[in-house]
Design a protein that fits this description.
Blueprint (H helix, E strand, L loop, with lengths): L4 H20 L5 H18 L2 H19 L2 H6 L12 H21 L2 H24 L7 E2 L2 E5 L7 E2 L1 H20 L7 H25 L3 E3 L6 E2 L3 E2 L2 E2 L1 E4 L6 H22 L2
Helix pairs in contact: 1-2, 2-3, 2-5, 3-6, 3-7, 5-6, 5-9, 6-7, 6-8, 6-9, 7-8, 8-9
The structure holds zinc ion.
Length: 271
């Protein structure tokens, strides 16, 4: 059911205010602010429901909170998000682009299946963000998900810690419980939580696997470190492994789609 025009106008004002606030709090840079406003409007208008927008706002609040949590410490170990944690449009689009896509599909086709996909996307993004941002604070060195005997530096894609993995579950549950409280799937609480939790946790495991197996890696010609960016210390590095061009943002986008497929599967299996 399409939202009345008055709701859309109120939503547009609310989204503008929140995006501006995120910009002022340095959670988003200029392009990230614009991208999040566009995605917010698509989600509100596409879903025709305030609930979807509230889910995204809860995700964003949790992600910003945990990104800034002990930020100085994360910076000191050189693992904090670049640009002081202010996310750009690429980062916003790779975490939330799929959510907007399913909201648009909901507008065209309707039905709870796209709500399930949407929850899978947001739960995966929440799991991944909380696992990364809190996992960085772990006293234990991360181990590579595909070879747990190998320790890696904090912040390495594919590195996992017990703390980070626990937070992946927490992230997915936050989205699942919020969706249940908002009455997704006509109030079928257990089903909503299962769809979001399973999609989010498996989606973020998919993120770690893709990060370990397929993400591009380069060796810096200046410091000799293996890094996840083509350039380091101002010079182009030597290609080491992974798929060229498959960077952290594309891995995020792919893993949210994996989360969506898993959530759709759980939704379908639970009848
Ligand atoms: Zn270097």
């Amino acid at each position: 059911m399409p939202l009345p025009l008055s709701d859309i106008l109120v939503g547009f004002v609310l989204i503008s205010i929140l995006s501006y606030l995120a910009f002022k709090l340095k959670a988003l840079n200029r392009s990230g602010t614009f991208a999040s406003a566009v995605i917010g409007v698509i989600i509100l208008v596409g879903s025709g429901s305030w609930s979807w927008l509230i889910i995204i706002i809860i995700f964003f609040a949790a992600a910003s909170f945990f990104t800034h949590f002990k930020y100085t410490f994360k910076r000191s170990i050189g693992a904090a998000e670049a640009r002081r944690g202010a996310r750009s449009w690429v980062n916003v689009a790779s975490n939330g682009g799929a959510a907007a896509l399913f909201a648009a599909a909901e507008y065209v086709f309707g039905g709870d299946i796209f709500a399930a996909a949407f929850l899978g996307v947001v739960a995966t993004a929440a799991s991944d963000t909380l696992a990364t941002e809190v996992g960085l604070l772990s006293r234990m060195k991360p181990r590579l998900i595909i070879s747990l005997r190998r320790q890696v530096e904090p912040g390495t894609s594919g590195g996992v810690t017990p703390l980070g993995t626990s937070m992946a579950v927490v992230g997915a549950l936050i989205i699942g419980l919020a969706a249940a409280a908002l009455g997704f799937f006509d109030g079928a609480v257990f089903k909503v939580v299962a769809v979001a939790a399973v999609g989010g946790v498996l989606g973020s495991i998919g993120d770690s696997l893709l990060g370990a197996l397929l993400q591009e890696r380069y060796r810096c010609v200046v410091c000799g470190k293996v890094v996840e960016h083509p350039t380091h210390h101002g010079s182009k590095g030597l290609f080491v492994s992974g798929i060229r061009g498959l960077d952290n943002n594309l891995v995020n986008l792919t893993s949210t789609l994996i989360g969506a497929v898993i959530s759709i599967t759980v939704f379908t299996l639970m009848g």
